[in-house]
Write a structure and sequence with these properties.
about 50% helix, six-stranded parallel sheet, 10 strands, four-stranded antiparallel sheet, Helix Hairpins, Rossmann fold, alpha/beta
């Protein structure tokens, strides 16, 4: 678990990274998450209202209001003592009567007008009760769906935590601490609903949502809005046997990557042999459960204090390993200069330099002269429904204690220890 928590701080701080510009609306959606257009949201809201028959109730209310206004106007025209003298007065009286407010400033004087007033009162109360019941039913239904994890997420730039096990709460704690409790986190699993509710109650000051369902199912991931997610963590289902658990983790990774190829996925595995399969499935980072147990135990026996230092670095709180983007003005300078400047500026002790190499895409391999061969290749990829190559995810380059002469690149970031307060 120590190795697992070491990734959490940098994972939560990592900014969403889009791949190189590519043609195609679907690809643009995947590479640049953004909220749904206003028109799309309006259509969704209209569909929900239609499901609750709100448009029908509104149409019925308008019809009764119009008929009542016309009827009361003509009924009162024959009275010499009338105080409803214009059609505007009739509309005002209808509104006040149907809403059961009853100001009393305008009243019918004729017998027919009074009967119409009674009809407006009764119809107004009935419609008001229907509206109240409909809205209450809709709100209660939405609340039940949220509590059962059956609703659909509309967030963007959120982090998915797929699956759950005994280390899940520790991972969640790391995400919240690393982001200052400002991260948008969606828990996706098919475990007991009570577990998720208790977890959200204990972290009531954080923004956490729960989606119930198998994270390996595309329908569940769609409800979690994976296409607009920032990153995903796939936890091993320890209720299964080791091999079966890692197979399920691989399926979840494949499902996530198939819906959003450029999302950053960190997966947990129980067996070392599963790492190759997870790499082929598209996992960007893989944490093997218990991978460093041997190092910790042997270090504790042969190098006193070593295990405590490692535990301190991999624990949440002061002195933990942190991810720090290198300022742009330091690009092109040597590691020795950056090490000194970061140390003097904020007390950050740099231990390693990491950078993700640029992904190889179809556009990078093809020429720009629009030859027949290139056009044929593009057409085949387009008909296959993808613009991505199998190896386009790129690789993470890690330099631990690089030489002083190393030149900082634009995509480099520092891994180190912040100065204790």
């Amino acid at each position: 678990m120590a190795s697992q928590t070491s990734h959490v701080a940098s994972f939560a701080r990592r900014k969403p990274q889009g791949s190189s510009p590519q043609p195609g609306a679907d690809r643009e959606m995947n590479n640049a998450p953004r909220p749904a257009p206003i028109a799309v949201r309006a259509r969704r809201a209209w569909s929900r209202l239609q499901g609750q028959h709100v448009p029908r109730l509104a149409a019925l209310s308008i019809t009764l209001f119009a008929l009542g206004s016309v009827a009361i106007y003509f009924a009162e025209m024959t009275s010499d003592e009338r105080n409803i003298r214009s059609f505007g007065d009739a509309m005002w009286y209808s509104i006040v009567t149907m809403s059961t407010v009853g100001y009393g400033d305008l009243t019918p004087k004729t017998t027919l007008g009074k009967f119409i007033g009674v009809a407006l009162m009764l119809s107004g109360m009935s419609l008001l009760f229907l509206f109240t019941a409909t809205i209450a039913s809709y709100l209660v239904t939405q609340r039940i769906r949220e509590e059962r994890g059956l609703d659909t997420i509309r967030w963007t730039d959120h982090i998915l935590v797929c699956g759950w096990n005994q280390y899940g709460e520790s991972v969640l704690e790391g995400l919240l601490q690393a982001s200052g409790r400002s991260a948008l986190i969606v828990l996706v699993n098919d475990g007991p609903e009570e577990t998720a509710h208790e977890l959200m109650y204990r972290n009531h000051d954080a923004t956490i949502h729960y989606i119930h369902g198998d994270p390996a199912a595309e329908a569940t991931l769609e409800r979690a809005n994976v296409r607009h997610a920032r990153a995903a963590i796939v936890l091993t289902d320890t209720s299964r046997a080791s091999a079966a658990a890692d197979e399920h983790t691989t399926l979840v990774t494949l499902a996530v990557k198939s819906l959003k190829p450029d999302i950053k996925v960190t997966a947990e595995a129980l067996e070392m042999s599963s790492e190759a399969h997870l790499r082929r499935a598209g996992a960007d980072d893989i944490v093997i459960s218990g991978e460093f147990n041997g190092f910790m135990l042997s270090s504790a026996a042969l190098s006193p204090g070593m295990s405590r230092v490692v535990r301190r670095l991999l624990s949440f709180g002061e002195g933990e390993l942190s991810h720090l983007p290198i300022p742009r003005e330091y690009v092109g300078r040597t590691f020795a200069d950056v090490f000194r400047l970061l140390r003097e500026d904020s007390g950050f002790l740099t231990l390693a330099i990491v950078a993700e190499s640029k992904a190889v895409t179809l556009d990078d391999l093809l020429t720009d002269d629009y030859s027949l061969v290139d056009e044929f290749i593009r057409q085949q990829f387009s008909e296959a429904g993808t613009e991505y190559l199998r190896f386009e995810e790129g690789e993470m380059r890690v330099l631990v204690n690089p030489p002083d002469s190393y030149v900082i690149q634009p995509d480099d970031a520092a891994i180190g220890i912040p100065r204790l307060a």
